[in-house]
Amino acid sequence: MFLSTISAISFVQVAIASCAHGVEWIHPFSANIAPAAFSYGTTTGPLNWHNLNANNILCGSGTNQSPILLNTTSSLAPSGSITLNVPPVPNVAFENLGTTVEVIINGTLKAGDAAWNFKQRVSHCSRCATSYMLNVSMCRFHFHTPSEHRVNLVHYEAEMHFVFTAADGSAKITVLAFLIQIGPGSSYPFLENIFSHLPSIPNAGQTTQVPRVDMRGFVAHANQMSYYQYTGSLTTPPCSEGVTWYVATTPIPMYVRTYRNLKNTIGSNSRYTQSDLGQANILHLL
Ligand SMILES: *[C@@H]1O[C@H](CO)[C@@H](O)[C@H](O)[C@H]1NC(C)=O
Ligand SMILES: *[C@@H]1O[C@H](CO)[C@@H](O)[C@H](O)[C@H]1NC(C)=O
Ligand SMILES: *[C@@H]1O[C@H](CO)[C@@H](O)[C@H](O)[C@H]1NC(C)=O
């Protein structure tokens, strides 16, 4: 009874106007950013995502689900192996999807990665442990409050996800993640710039334009950071696995007032911590 009510609303499985193959199924929204079929509430929230749609089965039974607990013993990507590039551009779309706010912008990521399954062979890769290099493109990034990943059991105030798809057209996804720590002292200008437009998109389905986004200063720092690396899943339905995660070990700063605006717009949109990699899903243990 309860479950059939839920499945009645699960038909919203429409491709977005995507700029990269494979990203469609990260956010099952329509081109007009219709409300998501899932939420962070009760009946359509994370504990019941696996019952909302047959495609979401891994949200309940997957054994390599994200987010996870990270700590000082977690694997790191090889030092200096991450190269993010996001050229400055005018007129950037900024959207309130109801489940997050998202910035539509192109970028690329190159990462030496021995674990990546859909590698591109490159001939001149002197810094890579293997002769392979991950070469993927991004068309959007979004935010979660509080953070989804926890380090040494601690949540940060927010988390930013740059989502990449493989240039070879395979459906594989890579996420470059940054934990955000609030404070009075500093923030990145690109975050302040983007979030200064939050008042234009208070409600789900609204979109606005940021006149210019230049994140080269942030990107230069990001390319100096260390990253935890593991293979997990999307943290939203359909919770697909085989997602390569890079989570920066250094949290990035943001002003308290900016965080307050972000939180008031997106609410709490974090999936709860999943079982350790390879372990039975907690929803199956209950
Ligand atoms: C680090 O995390 C792993 C996986 O959750 C866990 O097995 C291990 O005990 C943790 N180590 C410390 C020092 O907390
Ligand atoms: C991203 O790049 C693609 C391919 O070059 C282009 O068609 C698309 O318009 C770009 N999107 C944005 C938001 O700049
Ligand atoms: C990465 O992919 C782009 C096209 O998607 C290509 O132009 C570029 O040469 C590739 N770089 C490497 C190092 O393979």
Topology:
Layout: H1 2-8, H2 49-52, H3 58-61, E1 69-70, E2 82-85, E3 89-96, E4 101-111, E5 120-121, E6 132-144, E7 150-151, E8 158-166, E9 173-183, H4 189-195, E10 207-213, H5 216-222, E11 227-233, E12 241-248, E13 252-255, H6 256-266, H7 282-285
Parallel strand pairs: 1-7, 9-12, 9-13
Antiparallel strand pairs: 2-4, 3-4, 3-10, 4-6, 5-6, 6-8, 8-9, 11-12
The structure holds 2-acetamido-2-deoxy-beta-D-glucopyranose (NAG) (3 copies).
Residues 19, 104-106, 139 line the site of one 2-acetamido-2-deoxy-beta-D-glucopyranose (NAG).
Provide an overview of this structure.
The protein has a single domain, classed as Alpha carbonic anhydrase (Carbonic Anhydrase II, Roll). With 286 residues, it is α+β, with helices and mostly antiparallel strands. The chain starts with a helix and ends with a helix. Bound molecules: 2-acetamido-2-deoxy-beta-D-glucopyranose (3 copies). One 2-acetamido-2-deoxy-beta-D-glucopyranose (NAG) binds next to loops. Its cofactor is Zn(2+). This is Carbonic anhydrase.
Brief sketch in words of this structure:
The protein is an alpha+beta fold.
Distance between the termini: 21 Å
Under CATH at level 1, the class stands as Alpha Beta
Quaternary class: single chain
Backbone shape = globular
Q: How large is the radius of gyration?
A: 18 Å
The molecules bound to the chains, other than polymers, are: 2-acetamido-2-deoxy-beta-D-glucopyranose
Percent of residues in helices: 10-25%
CATH fold call: Carbonic Anhydrase II
Query: Which architecture name does CATH use?
Result: Roll
**Can you give the mean pLDDT?**
83
